[in-house]
Structure formats: structure tokens, C-alpha cells
Amino acid sequence: xxxxxxxxxxxxxxxxxxxxxxxxxxxxxxxxxxxxxxxxxxxxxxxxxxxxxxxxxxxxxxxxxxxxxxxxxxxxxxxxxxxxxxxxxxxxxxxxxxxxxxxxxxxxxxxxxxxxxxxxxxxxxxxxxxxxxxxxxxxxxxxxxxxxxxxxxxxxxxxxxxxxxxxxxxxxxxxxxxxxxxxxxxxxxxxxxxxxxxxxxxxxxxxxxxxxxxxxxxxxxxxxxxxxxxxxxxxxxxxxxxxxxxxxxxxxxxxxxxxxxxxxxxxxxxxxxxxxxxxxxxxxxxxxxxxxxxxxxxxxxxxxxxxxxxxxxxxxxxxxxxxxxxxxxxxxxxxxxxxxxxxxxxxxxxxxxxxxxxxxxxxxxxxxxxxxxxxxxxxxxxxxxxxxxxxxxxxxxxxxxxxxxxxxxxxxxxxxxxxxxxxxxxxxxxxxxxxxxxxxxxxxxxxxxxxxxxxxxxxxxxxxxxxxxxxxxxxxxxxxxxxxxxxxxxxxxxxxxxxxxxxxxxxxxxxxxxxxxxxxxxxxxxxxxxxxxxxxxxxxxxxxxxxxxxxxxxxxxxxxxxxxxxxxxxxxxxxxxxxxxxxxxxxxxxxxxxxxxxxxxxxxxxxxxxxxxxxxxxxxxxxxxxxxxxx
Length: 631
Ligand code: WTA
Prior knowledge:
Structural class: alpha/beta
CATH class of the largest domain: Alpha Beta
Strand content: 15-25%
Shape: globular
Bound molecules: 5'-O-[(S)-ethoxy(hydroxy)phosphoryl]adenosine
């Protein structure tokens, strides 16, 4: 199923559009099913209702583990690289990973988990995180992984939204020189989570934690009580595999739902093709499993293909900005898949951290999460790939389950800052504000997808209407991505960024409404408006305009208070980079905040603010501009 030439890509693409069912039916033959499907696809985008491989039975862990045992049992599945380079790295072969997943699956059962139950996972980037994820899938429980940077309140909201019965966590996490007290955060969260019956705690950083009698148990103790034999639960192709919460333009994150069959096929197919993975190669994706990239391209995609996947606990700059290069050298990494924000951050340290590092093992480079600027692209290409490793700039989303628009390594001619061409099975279309198709090349518009693909979301947990409204109602019969996009003269796609009120800060999706809600929770804040602005390293920074009439003490302290509130409500990842206190916000007569104006001010623009005639009180804009100049 690997594409090895551009001609083949063109043929496969053509076939995938002309006969999608046959195309995906053939791709799916490369996976292991307990029972075949009777229909490859049935769908409509109105409801929406999407079913892939209807009637088929499988368990994704049999594809990620069992099927490799006979031939590749002793091959490394996961290489874990700890935060602290002085600690030993850990290699788990497919045999070992299989054994541990089965054992932990039995622990889950022992603690009352069964098929269909939702299980929240809040863990550091350790092998046990992948084990926990796969153990859920083994028994048919639905995992909801929450990134370690989210606050207790965010966790509680997510746990309650999907009524999780179990939580899997650790005493803490290492992150560079910092320690994050995961169990403490979970304890705060669980005060407001009546559905949680059990909490399984892994010892990792060895910090004291409080263990609640009857609820909390230690991972290390539990695994002693069970054996490592666990038959995989037989799942329907359309049974839920996982929920992953993501931000949108409203204040409340939504639980994107992926199902077993289609997601597996899509993650595996795209992994194998985009990175042109070759047996025996070492593949390193630097994302966190708390985000979709980690789900699809650290765990499910690579393991379904029998690959060796590096799982890194730390951050790119600890203990020094050479860390990635040390890991590449140490584990002889062949593919490095990372985010533009990491590249820009490492770039800022100059070439010194690269001196003496042997990066000759690198064959393919990848980028994901946000548009990659040309400067970062060239640096990546020249300094890391030495001009020999193709860069796959992969565009996709939590909702798409896997990569959608991207070069295929060594097949597609790349172009800096372009995600290039759609993968087979992906039918992008650009539309104008009214939903009219923009045809031809050298055009730009809003990016939509007009035909289903196996990895697409099926619903948003507990609220199907919201799924419909968010993705399928803006334009009739189309999936709307929320991204703006350009198609150049060669028909190459370049994603230009979100066109809705979603920010992309260091590759993390954050809704402006969510940040505003958090700021507004601070006593004393009357109202706020949040916009993004270009940031050298983060891609986008968060700029908050805040009305805070009766400030006690100095402004600096009040800003810190607000940051503290945001950290409590969402997590440190959503902290504004800039806060400006204002006496009013630019609003239309109907009371709508004109973000367009605020965005321009945040970008440093003070004169060309466009039409302000519809403003209720134009004087407020002058005042904001003056205040911004003083920053
Ligand atoms: C953005 C991450 C430009 C985009 C996999 C999308 C990108 C959002 C790229 C999804 C790329 C992702 N070029 N923009 N290669 N990849 N994006 O759900 O705005 O965390 O809608 O999924 O990131 O973010 P999410």
C-alpha cells in the first residue's frame, strides 16, 4: 500500500476519487479483521452520519501488537527517552509491549472497567501512557487523554462531559527542570467528578501524594494481582475508540469522537505513506500523546505498521537546546516529526547546539500543527536535513484523525510553507463566504472537504447537534475545516491559518472565547476580548484587552492575578502573552465586539483600522491605540 512514485500517487488519487469504496476496501485489506465488512461506506453530511467498514469486527490492538508478534516480536516498538538524559532510556519490544498492555488491561477490568466505559488518562510522556491507551482499546473502553498542561477545572469539565468512570494518572511529571504534580491536580479535579469510581496512580517522580481509600490504587500494586493474558474485545468498526477534547470558537471544548475501524485504517495508511516508513527504521514524533498527533503518530499509526516509535518525556531545550539532536544521534533516528514552534525555538539558539552532532541517520523530516514559515522551513531543511531529507509539511486536525494534505516523502516535490497536495481519498475544495466553490489555481478561500475519509470524526461526544453545527452547517454538504487556504498556480495547497476564533499557540489550539471566559472569572474583570497576534516563536501569541475598572494596587500585580486565574481555569498553556487594560471595547451598535480592529491593534497597526463607522463609540478605539502605544 506504499506509494513509491508520483505517477502512482496520481493513479491512486484518481482511483480514490472515482471509486472511493474500492480504494479504501483495498487499503483496509492490509489490516487484520475478525470479520469483514459488508459495506465500505455509507454517509451523508446533513445529519451527519458516516459509517466506514460497516459490519466489520476488529480490535485495533491486535493490529498494533498481536499481528507483529510472530515475525517482529523482538523488534523495538517503543523507545522511551526520559526527561533527564542521565537516566537510562527504555526499549519495549512488541512482545514486551503486548505483555504489558494485556496485563494492564486486566488491571482495568479488575477495577471495574468494561467495554464502552470512558476512561480519563492524565499522564506524563512515559511508556505507561501508551500502555494505558492501548489497554483501554484492548478491552473496548473509550480513552479520553488529557494533556498534562490542563488545569483541574479543565480536567473536571472533560471528565464530567463524558462521564468517565476511571482515571489513570501518575504522581507527577518531569518537564525540563520543572515537576508537575499530576496527582494533586487530579485530586482537585475529582472533587467535582461524581462518576469517577477508581483512580490508578503510577509512581514516576516519587513525590508524596495523597491516596484516597477505596478510590485510589497504585499501578505497581495492581499489576501484581493479574496475569498478562487478555483476549482482545471484539469491536464493531463503528464502535467508539476514543474521545479527544479540542477547542472551538465557543467557550466549551468539544469531545471529538473517533471510531475503531476507519481511524485505524486511516492512521496506518497515512503513517506508512507520508513518512515512507521502511522496516527497521526509527521514527521520532516529538508531540505529546495528549494531542491528536501523539494518538495517531506516536501510538496507533506507527504501531499498526510495526514501526519503532520514540517516545520522549522532555522538552527540546532541556538540559540544553541540543537535546533533539542528541536523541537523533543516540537512537539513530530516521524520521523526525515535529512542530514549527519547536523548530523556531531551536533556531533561535543558533548553530552552536548542532556542533559535533551526527544527524546523518535522518532521512525524512516532518512538520505539523501550524503553518511553517519559510525561514524555519529552510533552516530545518539545511541544518537538520542537510538538504537531503524531504520535509513533509502535514496539514490535518483533531477532527480529521490523520494527515490530509501533505507531501509524500520522496514522492511529492516539496515547496517551502506548502502542505502541497491532498493524500489519496482526500477531496479538498475552496469556497467563498457564501459557500460557492472557488475553482482553478492561484486562488484562496475557506478550506472544506467534500467527501468522507475513514479517519474523520463521527460526532462530538454527547452532542451530535454541535458536531453538525460546527462542521457541517456552515456550507451545505461540506465538512468545514475552519482554515483559510491558498491554492497556487501548481495546484499546491498552503494553509494560511484559522478563519474562526481559534488561536494556534505553539501548535496548541485555544479558543479565544475560552480564554475570555477564564479572564472574566477573575473578580473585578468586567469584560475582555482576546485576539491572536504574530509571535516569533509561538506562531501566535495571545493578546487580551481587559476592562478592569476598580483595580486594587498596581496594574502589574493585577495582570499577574489574571494570569493566575487563566492558569487555574484552563491551564498555563492559555496564559495571555500581553494584557492591556482598557475602559471599553470597540463594539457595533448591536453589541458585537469588533475583533478585526483589536487584531490590528494587537499587530501594532495604529492607523489603517478599516471601517470604524459602525462603531457605537469610535472614541474608545483612539483610547485603546494610545494605551497600546504605551506598552
Ligand atoms: C493548524 C493538529 C498549517 C490548522 C494536527 C488546523 C496547520 C489546526 C498544519 C488543527 C499545517 C495543523 N500547516 N496549519 N501543516 N497542521 N495546522 O486539531 O489551523 O491540534 O486547523 O491538530 O492546526 O489543530 P489540531
